[in-house]
Amino acid sequence: MAFDMGSHTHGVLKMGFWKILFIGFLLVSSVLGGDQVGKRKESKPCSFTAIYNFGDSASDTGATTATFGPFPPPYGETFFHKPAGRASDGRLVIDFIAELLGLPYLDAYLNSLATNYRHGANFAVGGATIRRQNSSIVSRFGISPFSLDIEITQFDNFKSRTYDLYKQANTLERRGLPVPNQFSEALYRIDIGNNDLYVGSQTLSLQQLREELPDMVNQLASAVEHLYQQGGRAFWIQSAGPLGCSPVNQILNPNIPPGFLDKNGCVKGINDVVTEYNRQLKDRLIKLRAELLEAAITYVDLYSPVYTLVTNAKNEGFPNASIICCGYFENNARVPCGAKAIINGSEVYGASCANPSLHLSWDGVHSTEAANKWVANHVLNGSASDPPIPITQACHRYN
After folding, report:
1. Of 143, 168, 144, which Cα lies nearest the Cα of 154?
2. What CATH number is attached to the domain comprising 25?
3. Cα separation of 212 and 197, whole Å?
């Protein structure tokens, strides 16, 4: 049975720039095997020179704001103390990855000012999908026209231009450019798919959506194969998270029938499809390891850690886990984070909560910095990965 939230969604997301904000997702264990633990302990940390990131709003560090205009305050208030191109109050998981690897925060590829790509670039765009969407879907759901294949094309252009410019530039001019022969020494991270699943859950029956999963997986795998042909060797591929647990489900449908929800208030049917997608993705990546003989491909399970966090939020330090931090969502009125609206003759502001660190959800879709940090701490150590290696060792190949 399909769970139709389309009519409600259309009404909320038709807010110009704000459509992008409502399409991301509140993101992000398995037990380590003895043999892999032994290998992991013996492996030396990788010397990643750069990160090339592909994805959606969960890892967008400025592409959306470069295209549609900046996020308003209070976005960015916790860490950057101003809007910083991120759909959160602070850092994203990709920022914690950069910190852990000793690299600068990634500049967005689409951001043309004050950028430095010496240590990588971020091709992620808010609302991006694995597969291209038709114009009606883009308009209705605020999906980005920048699908994964376009992000990959942008990377190709970036790499090609890097080679040309590096040859022509003097020593000073090269400081902001990647070193061409170091593309093979970079970490390639892909974190995308939630928007495909979200739109599918709104426009298809769950059975029809299941039938679309193989094509999604194959297109993502094709992106990995292409990056491999372009010299990429270390891949950190993240699964979809428990989309059915996103607070946006309750925002758009406050009267969801109890039978559709699990014990944590998550929409069961959607999460079941996400679980199947993740299973197929993992299986396909295992096959890719055998096909791409020089690639180190790590599958990262985001679903399990995030669902564990949702289940045990209070014990993990998030007593206000069920409350959205930023925005106004009362009496069927919805004012997005940082926006203003006239409600019953009075101006209402989508303000932030007093302490975002006590909340999981920043704006109803995207995570707070505190939640992102929790996810990073429980994912980057390899405990949710196959093979179970930390991101600092993701350049090592394991069969």
Report:
1. 144
2. 3.40.50
3. 9
| 128-182 pLDDT tens trace | 999 999 888 888 888 899 999 999 999 999 999 998 888 887 766 677 788 888 9
Does the annotation count 283 as an active-site position? no
Query: Would you call 378 a catalytic residue per the annotation?
Result: no
Could you tell me the two tokens for 286?
């295992």
Catalytic residue among 56, 57, 201, 378: 57
How are beta strands 51-55 and 346-349 bridged, if at all? unpaired
Prediction pTM value: 0.88
Does residue 328 lie within any of the structural domains? no
Question: For residues 117 and 102, is the Cβ–Cβ distance under 8 A?
Answer: no
Tokens of 125: 């765009």
Per-residue tokens: 207:
């059975």
What are the tens digits of pLDDT across the range 301-335? 999 999 999 999 999 999 999 899 999 988 778 89
Q: Are 386 and 346 in contact (CB under 8 A)?
A: no
Would you call 45 helix, strand, or coil by DSSP?
Answer: coil
Residue 332 lies in a domain: no
The tens digit of pLDDT for each residue in 101-134 reads 999 999 999 998 888 999 999 999 999 999 999 8
Range of the domain at 94: 6-314
Q: How many domains does the chain have?
A: 1
Task: Give the mean model confidence (pLDDT) for residues 236-253.
Answer: 88
Look at residue 119 and tell me if it is in a domain: yes
Residue 56 annotated to the active site: no
1 located within any domain: no
pLDDT in tens, 24-72: 433 333 333 333 333 444 578 999 999 999 999 999 999 999 999 999 9
Q: Which of 191, 366, 385, 386 is catalytic?
A: 366
Q: Of 95, 107, 191, 363, which one is the catalytic site residue?
A: 363
